[in-house]
Amino acid sequence: xxxxxxxxxxxxxxxxxxxxxxxxxxxxxxxxxxxxxxxxxxxxxxxxxxxxxxxxxxxxxxxxxxxxxxxxxxxxxxxxxxxxxxxxxxxxxxxxxxxxxxxxxxxxxxxxxxxxxxxxxxxxxxxxxxxxxxxxxxxxxxxxxxxxxxxxxxxxxxxxxxxxxxxxxxxxxxxxxxxxxxxxxxxxxxxxxxxxxxxxxxxxxxxxxxxxxxxxxxxxxxxxxxxxxxxxx
Length: 233
Known about the structure:
By secondary structure, the chain is α/β, with parallel strands linked by helices. It has a single domain, classed as HAD superfamily/HAD-like (Rossmann fold, 3-Layer(aba) Sandwich). The protein contains nine helices and nine strands. The protein has helices spanning 18-29, 37-48, 54-65, 72-89, 93-104, 117-127, 156-169, 186-194, 206-215, and strands spanning 3-6, 69-71, 108-116, 131-135, 137-140, 143-148, 176-180, 198-202, 219-220. Helix 1 runs parallel beside helix 3, helix 2 (37-48) runs antiparallel to helix 3 (54-65) and helix 4 (72-89) packs across helix 6. The longest helix has 18 residues, at 72-89. The radius of gyration is 17 Å and the shape is globular. It comes from Polymorphobacter multimanifer. It holds the Pfam family HAD. One of its GO terms (molecular function) is hydrolase activity. InterPro entries: HAD-like_sf (IPR036412), HAD_sf (IPR023214).
């Protein structure tokens, strides 16, 4: 069976999804936490200067703007509403058309993203994906903890998880494709190429465009992604 793997932020969606998720949560459940934004600014500065990594930044943002523990029912209801919003207004039409074409062709669809699983899975379900590989959530006593469930699904970590999924679900010779916009997914591009698949630099950054030209990866444009300071993949 053919397998099509897609990155999410700025590949399918018009922009990053983590910052908008936090704003969505603040407006809906914790508007008072806006007073903690200066502390998040400090965490952002620590990330920008490489004192902390992306995973630590995510966890800190969650702790400040969402809280330490949250009931599963509350989180999943909010994630469902947020996913509806993203799918209705936040995706490139050309991306949705390609996903629909792959589905119609009988491809197995896999969403591979660094976004948090609790809302990435809701978006993936609405887009018709068969599997979602994302940054794991940590659930304790049926509550969402502010810490990540495992390493941030980014760069080499995403490659490792995609490879593990393929080892368990793909057969030798299955046609394989991958779409992503960002150079951090170069390890996945190389993995797919090594397995005889085709990797597409999609809505590519300048850095990924250069890598694509060097490695012979086809380029496609589904739209112009929105930029943000800390959501660079």
